[in-house]
């Protein structure tokens, strides 16, 4: 039995067979540095996937900040400490002025769980709308939001799903403003369904870049009609920025800024501490106060000094190394290369994305899509 096979067998015995691994031939990683990873055989890999070490594997600034704070103090937030306050001040300065306060958690799953309860506290309702094929985490409440794996016992009556926008196959076969209005109509219809139910309507939760749904190239202000419908119905808009946030899209610090909207609640996770467990829920002070009145909430490790030191170091590196501008420049170069490949290979339906958040849609037959588009016009 090879070394990897022994590790896999041991892993399955200790962690269970459902603990998933990447690739048919899993990789045994032993070292990371910047954009590079090394396996146990010394093979070097360019890491084009990992969305957790946002400023690079083992960035010395982040490692040093963690070690320095861990050697001084680590405790929970029921003691006074400047670290969490300094970080929240700096973090909220990157948002619209209406988003001026935060609760820190350990994970994005926890952040989204809290965000759902914030929406309930503000509206007095529990009904929530999410897009299909999304992913917002794995708590009991948040796992209800994804259609990829129906929860045990099925979906609660308070959860509704709308189709995620698809720029390659837009609703009604139209793009531009018509596409935006068609998607908003789906949201409005679903809001009405919840309003007629005992649950009422508390809000819409989306990844503003629709990362798990293939990050469609959407027209400018695409989300505006849907956001207006949510607010007209008395609901709140929750933007899950776990994946598109912290400058990954290049032109903007946050995905909702690129989309041209200001959400009521923003959730953060994965890249926030470059791999150190930390997440956040950012909202207005009034929203946080409503949440505190409605729910007794405390997170033992959320916002601890070591996590805040790691998160602050990430912001330092983003700013000092101009990584947002770098994402825009390098991402544009890589996307151009993919677009050239698409011209040569029909299996690439299109290339889309922004900054260092881009990809290609692989299709069975691009010509068939064109034929279907022209058929109604008699071609």
UniProtKB/TrEMBL annotation:
Entry's family note: Belongs to the class-III pyridoxal-phosphate-dependent aminotransferase family.
Domain of life: Bacteria
A single MF term (Gene Ontology): transaminase activity
Signal sequence, renumbered to the chain: none
Keywords per UniProt: Aminotransferase, Pyridoxal phosphate, Transferase
Organism of derivation: Brucella abortus (strain S19)
The protein's required cofactors: pyridoxal 5'-phosphate
The protein, known as: 4-aminobutyrate aminotransferase
UniProt entry tagged with the keyword Transferase: yes
Record InterPro entries: Aminotrans_3, Aminotrans_3_PPA_site, PyrdxlP-dep_Trfase, PyrdxlP-dep_Trfase_major, PyrdxlP-dep_Trfase_small
